[in-house]
C-alpha cells in the first residue's frame, strides 16, 4: 500500500509539473497582452495605459494606441479602445477595418499630435473602411498646430495633416469630444455614409487658414449638430459629391462661416444636393452662409436643393453669398469669362436676421451662361451695424423671388 501511495504521489506531482510547463509554453506562444487575447476572439476594453502608453505628454505612445485598435478590431464582440485621463503624445494613427464588431473609442484623456512632420504621410488619425464606430468622451484631440502654423505659411511644408478623417466609414458617430489647433482640417468626412457629429467643440486661431472645423465630401446622410466651432477657415464646409447633409444648431465664430464649396476645382466632381443649414448663430465671421464655385471650373456639376434657414448673424462681414467667380489663387484663366460649368439652383434663404459689419449684406454673383435659378429670399432682414451707410444687396444673373425681406435686399431678377 505504501509503495502504491508513493507512486500515486509521484504521478500527481508529475501531472502538475506537466500542466505548468504546458501553460508556460502556451503563454510564451500567445503572450499575455490584450492584443493576443483579442487575436483569439476576446472582446472588451483595451486600455492604452495597460499596453504601454504614458500620459506625461512627452513619451511617444503611438504603438500602444495602435495596438489597442488592432485588438479591438479583431474582437468578435463589441469592443472599446480606452484612452484614460492623461496627455498622450502620438504620431499618425491608422485605424483600419473592416473589423469584426462595433467599436467605441472612449476618449477620456487627451491625444497630442506629434510635431515631427516627417512622420505624416497624410492625416493624423484616420478611421478607414470601418462600420459601426463611435468616438466619444470628454477628452481632446490636440493637433498642436500652433507650433507649426508658420511653416505652413512659408510653404516649407507641402501638406499638413488633418486631425480626424472618416474615410469609407458607415454608421459613425463623433460626439462630446474637443478638437484643438489642428494642423489642417479638424474633421474630414470623405466617402462615408450615415455619419453624425454632435456636441463637439472645435477651436483654432482665427487667423490661420485651412483649419476648417468639419469638412464633408463625397458622403451621404451626414448630420452635424449642437456644436461650437471657431477656426481660421470655414466652420463647416460641404464639398462635391455630398447628399443629404443636415447642419443644425451650430455656433460659428471666428471663421469664414458655413460654406458649400469650393465646387469645380478638380475634374470629375459630383453633384451636391439636399443640404440644409438651420438654427445657427454666426458671430463676427468673414462670411455667413455661402455657396462658392471656381470661375474656371474643371467639372460640370450641379448644386441644388440647398436651404439656409433660421440663421442669426452677429456683425458678419458678408452674411449671404453665392459666388460663381471664386478664385482664391488669383490666377484663374477663365476669370469673368461667363463660362461657369457649375449650376446653382433651388436655393432658399429663409428667416436670416441680425447684423452685417459691412453695408453689403447680400452678394449673389452668378454666371451669365449659367444663371442661378430658383433662388428664394424669404424673411431676410439683416441690417448694417455701422453708421452712415444703408444695408444693400448686389445681384447679377440671379433669378428667383423675394418675400417679406428688407426692400433693399430683394434684388433678384
UniProtKB/TrEMBL annotation:
Q: Which biological process, per GO, is one annotated for this protein?
A: carbohydrate metabolic process
Catalytic activity, EC: 3.2.1.67
InterPro entries of this UniProt entry? Glyco_hydro_28 (IPR000743), PbH1 (IPR006626), Pectin_lyas_fold (IPR012334), Pectin_lyase_fold/virulence (IPR011050)
Main subcellular localisation:
secreted
Query: Which UniProt keywords are present, listed alphabetically?
Result: Cell wall, Cell wall biogenesis/degradation, Disulfide bond, Glycoprotein, Glycosidase, Hydrolase, Repeat, Secreted, Signal
Query: A GO molecular-function term, please?
Result: galacturan 1,4-alpha-galacturonidase activity
The cross-references to Gene3D superfamilies, in alphabetical order and at most eight, read: Single-stranded right-handed beta-helix, Pectin lyase-like
Reaction equations catalysed: [(1->4)-alpha-D-galacturonosyl](n) + H2O = alpha-D-galacturonate + [(1->4)-alpha-D-galacturonosyl](n-1)
Q: Name one Pfam family in it.
A: Glyco_hydro_28
**Which top-level enzyme class is recorded in the Swiss-Prot or TrEMBL entry?**
hydrolase
Location within or outside the cell: Secreted, Cell wall
The positions making up the signal sequence are 1-23
Tell me which family the UniProt entry assigns to this protein: Belongs to the glycosyl hydrolase 28 family.
- Function summary: May function in depolymerizing pectin during pollen development, germination, and tube growth. Acts as an exo-polygalacturonase.
Please state what the protein is called: Exopolygalacturonase
